[in-house]
Amino acid sequence: MSQAGTTSTRPSTAEAERLWRLWKERGDSAARDRLVLLYSPMVRYLAQRKLRELPVHCELDDLVSCGLIALMRAVERFDPAKGATFEQFAWTRVVGAIVDELRRQDWVPRATRRLGREIEEARQRLLIRNGQSPSDHEIATELGISVGELSDRLADLQRADLVSLNAPVRSSDDGTLEVGDLIVSSSASDDPESQAMAAERAVVVRKAIRSLSERERMVLELVYVQNLQGREVAQRLGVSDSRVSQILSGAREALRKAVESYQAGSESTSLLEVAV
């Protein structure tokens, strides 16, 4: 197992076992601390590698913290008699802990994430096979589903990928740049007509929210006002994670239709004024 950027500090198999035996057999806490310190770069490497595959709301420090805890537990539970080296054992324990932490943070049902992986794998197979980016029809055929079902699955995935405007931008060198900083303000925001229409849309949205069921309004408040994760919302309401996702999707759809209905009415009024 090679770890980029950690080879200079990584101990040999014999050195790792020697430090472990000093701790296990003699209670040498300095040897234990030294072993953890030597393998801590491995933890950060594994966390960073995993983070590249994930949405921006996942924090590197959270993954590193749970990985270090797993590393310390690995020191306690390692048994060389079972045949694995300490590095192999620790690597497996740290990766498992990071995956568990990601599942704990993720409010999206696993079935939705699995659909995303299946679609991406199908897209990659077709790209390799045909040498060009596949169409939705080709992807749907590869998966054995209709184009409509594929569109529904993609819509579910888009709704699942919520990003906080306060999430840090990973390409930022100093870590101070946030997603919201990259959003360009529209010059139309200074236009009185645009401001009036925005105020009207706000009234439409508030009216649409009042028309939702009590549970839908509660889920919206818990997610968008109290910033709770889906799993925490599910625990508070006594339902499953997937049920929370369904309620949230239904509420969003109702609000979207209300706004689209308002916009369609506004466009009709504008056309009538032009004709007159």
Explain the layout of strands and helices.
Elements: H1 13-26, H2 29-51, H3 60-77, H4 86-105, H5 110-130, H6 136-143, H7 147-160, H8 192-211, H9 214-225, H10 230-237, H11 241-275
Helix pairs in contact: 1-2, 2-3, 2-4, 3-4, 5-6, 5-7, 6-7, 8-11, 9-11, 10-11
Structural class: mainly alpha
Strand segment count: 0
- Note poorly predicted spans: 1-8, 268-276
Secondary structure tally, helices = 11
Report the radius of gyration as a whole number of Å: 26 Å
Description:
Residues 1-8 and 268-276 have low confidence and may be disordered. Helix content is 70%, strand content 0%. Helix 2 packs across helix 4, helix 5 packs across helix 7 and helix 6 (136-143) packs across helix 7 (147-160). The protein has helices at 13-26, 29-51, 60-77, 86-105, 110-130, 136-143, 147-160, 192-211, 214-225, 230-237, 241-275. With 276 residues, it is mostly helical.
Give me some keywords for this one.
single chain, 276 residues, mainly alpha, disordered C terminus
Please summarize what this structure is.
This protein is mainly α. It has helices at 13-26, 29-51, 60-77, 86-105, 110-130, 136-143, 147-160, 192-211, 214-225, 230-237, 241-275. α2 crosses α4 (86-105), α3 (60-77) crosses α4 and α5 (110-130) packs across α7 (147-160).
